[in-house]
Amino acid sequence: MSVSGPDEQRPVNEQDTPAQPPADALSDAEIERLLAASTLPTNYSMHLLGFQTKEDAEKLAGVVGAFLRLFGTFLNLERLDAITVAYDYDTALKEVDRGTTCQELTATNDTFARGVAMTVRVLHESQVKCHIVAAAGLMNSLQEPNDPDYKLAIGILAHEAAHVHDLLMQDRAYPGVLLRRATGLFFYRGCKRKIKRKHSGISSAC
Length: 206
Ligand SMILES: [Zn+2]
Description:
This protein has two domains: 137 residues; 28 residues, no CATH class. It has five helices and six strands. Helices cover 30% and strands 17% of the residues. It is globular and about 60 Å long.
């Protein structure tokens, strides 16, 4: 009598067979179609700061752009104004042109955590948009799938992209409100009353 275990039921050449994509995997044509429909704007700007060579910067820019394009297939990224990837993350955060008077942004840095990415809300051409700032040290991990921080870097960039989507949803739900009270005056849409506020604006730090 012979007993057949699960291992014995596998094809003989399984060890030599390349991994097959799951049955519901998208075809190359479907992936191309999705990417072509990505919501990533064609006119967003990317700033790479502190890189040793232009080639290093351009290489990472290509990878970051590809991930953002991918995220734009399931998130709405039309309000992405810019992304800055910098070795000096803290300074890059401070130097974002927010298009309005806001409290200076500082990176999270305490006993619990150190910030490596933030999505900043900016006012550009009278529209509230997002500027992602990310630490180059982490974003570099996107270039190497075997890097121990590869998945972390993907997750953090996707998280920031989700803030871009979220901003659009909030602006649609409450048009004309976001960032509009940054100067200390709250412009009440509809009756044009100006109400003095003590605090200074809605910030997007996260
Ligand atoms: Zn966040």
